[in-house]
Amino acid sequence: MKSIKRTIKYDADRVQGFGREIMGVTGCEQLPSCIQCGTCSGACPLSIYMDFSPRQVMALVRADFKREVLSSNTIWLCASCYGCTVECPRQIRITDIMYALKQRAIREGVYPKGMPIPVLAREFTRMVLSKGRITETLLVMRLFLKANWRAVLSSWRLGLGLIQTGRFVLKPERIERREELAAMLATVSVTRHAARAAKGRHHATPEQLIAEEVP
Ligand code: SF4
Ligand code: SF4
Predict the structure, then answer these.
(1) What is the pLDDT of residues 167-201, one digit of tens each?
(2) How high is the pLDDT of residue 81?
(3) Ligand 2 atom 8 nearest Cα
(4) Which residue from 24, 114, 132, 143 could staple onto 175, CB 3.0 to 4.6 Å apart?
(5) Ligand 2 pocket test target in 73, 81, 87, 117 with most atoms within 8 Å of CB
(6) What CATH code is assigned to 14-108?
(7) Is 70 exceeded by the pLDDT of residue 209?
(8) Where are the domains of the chain?
């Protein structure tokens, strides 16, 4: 028997405090002044492909519908063109809010299944934190394997050609003195840095940073 999909949202579906947390992120403070005019949705070149329009995402965040927002494809389809932010009559930095939501979704491991963009973002971050720079070949291979391994079968010729022409290098790249990068990144998160300092660990190793920042 076909299951019935519930579309009605109840108060119990809210995660109290989620909206406040997002509005506490730098650049997202203006969200409470949204008047739901829909200008952002009208300006967005990708809104027709999104399951929730930018206007709806703003409303859902304010109303604490965390699961709906973090699992939507909207935040991942956002191309960061800043069209909505430029047009918003209340100067709400919608693009920054989308970034805050992406970061939150990656940190909590909640994103639409099979969507390659969050996988790419996670693997990119993981590689930069670990090596200080990315190796495109390895990044693409990880993306294919974790998001859609079947795509390897249809793209192997292209990949081989890129390797043969020297566009893709196989040798892993890394910076020197990775511990200095780790120390620099550690200072970005004041809360985590303070917690480390309290434990007498002022600097984290790259591996510790990855474990804390990327699920
Ligand atoms: S354009 Fe600005 S005020 Fe209007 S719905 Fe979008 S975020 Fe809200
Ligand atoms: S920044 Fe994102 S949400 Fe805003 S208009 Fe561009 S694609 Fe749409």
Answers:
(1) 877 788 888 988 888 788 777 755 555 555 555 54
(2) 97
(3) 44
(4) 132
(5) 81
(6) 1.10.1060.10
(7) no
(8) 14-108, 116-164, 178-213
